[in-house]
Amino acid sequence: MRRARPGAVPRGTGGTSSARRTGEERALASVDGIHAENSRREPAADAEPQARERNASRLWHVTLSVSGAKAPVTEVRRALEQLAHDHPFLLTSRYAGDHAEIRYWEEARDLHDAAAMALRLWGEHRATAKLPPWEIVGLEVIDRETYHQRVAEGYGPPPATSVGVHPY
Question: Helices 111-129 and 73-86, interaxial angle, to 10°?
């Protein structure tokens, strides 16, 4: 899984190849394998801005909740600290012996992609960070505007919770 800084071009969307340039459609093959070269359309004049807008990444605020069998809190803390090291956008983690909540920013094209990456996070880092064998029990993914609106209205994360790994 690739993690990038905000504003970075996601893999597979930024570069143009010599075979296909921005705004140019690639040839499609039919079910029989016959190329549909003759059915190629001329790209619309405004196709490039639409393609850029469609592929543009957005920031999503993710809250992932996990739970499972009781584990020593010192091991849970160490594992979450390692996860924070492995995953640079981790904002806060709160934990107890049998559950944890992780908040972070994810850069993705849309909600579906952000949620899919969030659902893979715990399992993909389980071995490297030595995370407990807990299951995901909750997921919230909201866009940047909604997050800032909630914070402005007083519904965001508690202001006393600073960045880092904290017990409940």
Answer: 120
